Amino acid sequence: MRLLIIEDEQALLDQLAKLLEREGYTVEKATNGEDGGWMASEFALDLAIVDLGLPDISGVEVIRQLRADDKSYPVLILTARDGWQAKVEALEAGADDYVVKPFHEEELLARVRALLRRASGWASAEICSGPFTLDTRGHSLKRGDTSIELTAFEYKVLEYLLLHAGEVISKTRLSEHIYDEETERDSNVIEVFIRRLRTKLDPDDSLHPIETLRGQGYRWSLPRG
User: Fold this and answer.
1) Closest to 159 measured CA to CA, from 126, 138, 134
2) Which of 5, 95, 143, 223 could form a disulfide with 90 if both were Cys (CB 3.0 to 4.6 A apart)?
3) CA neighbor of 3 nearest in space, from 123, 115, 163, 167
C-alpha cells in the first residue's frame, strides 16, 4: 500500500513516515500544500494523511482539489485544532476521518488500517453476507425478509464484524471502535453483546455466523454477498 503524508512539521513528518514504513507501507512525503496537492493528484495512492495547518495552501483546500480531480482514496486529516468547526469543514470537503494532535501512534495506525480495509471492501450502504443484509444508512438488519431488532450497541458490534468479515477481531479492538474515549470499557460487556447477537441472528444454531477463537477474539464467518 502506498501512502502520502502532507505535514509541514519535519520532525513529525519523519516520525510518521518511519512508523508507517515499519508497518510495511510505502510512504511519500510533502512538507507543504502545493507539493502535497500535486502528489495527491498525480501519484497512485491508497491513502493520504493531510495536516490541516499547512503554511501555504490549507489542508482543506488540498482535500477539495483532490476530490475535484476525482481521487476517491481515503483521506485522514491531522489537526491541532480543538474546535469542531475545523473538523467539520475538512470532513465536508471530503476527508474520511481525523486524528487530533498529539495522538497515540497505535490510534493513528488503527485508523489508517480501518480506512484502507473499507476502501478495498465494503463500499455499498447495504452489506450482504449469507442471508443477512445490514443497512448502514438506516441501521437496520434483515435475515431474508425478516427484520431483526438490534440495540444501538448490538448494531455497532455487528457492523464492525461485518465490515471486517473474515478477520479475527479481539475484544480490545472491538471495544476501541464501538465506545467513545470517555466510556469505561469492559470486555465482559462485549461477551454479552456477542451472546445476544448470536441468539437474535441464529436462534436455531444453524449458521454460526460469529465464531469465537479462544484467546484471540471473534470472526464473522459467512461469505460476502
Assistant:
1) 134
2) 95
3) 115
| Alpha-carbon span 77 to 93, nearest angstrom | 11
CB atoms under 10 Å from CB of 19, counted, come to 17
Q: What is this structure's pTM?
A: 0.55
Window from 8-12, 85-89, 218-222 with minimum mean pLDDT? 85-89
Domains of the chain: 2-120 (3.40.50.2300), 126-220 (1.10.10.10)
169 DSSP β-pair partners: 218
Phi then psi dihedrals of residue 143, to 5 deg: -110, 105
Q: Which of 10-14, 136-140, 150-154, 162-166 has the lowest mean pLDDT?
A: 136-140
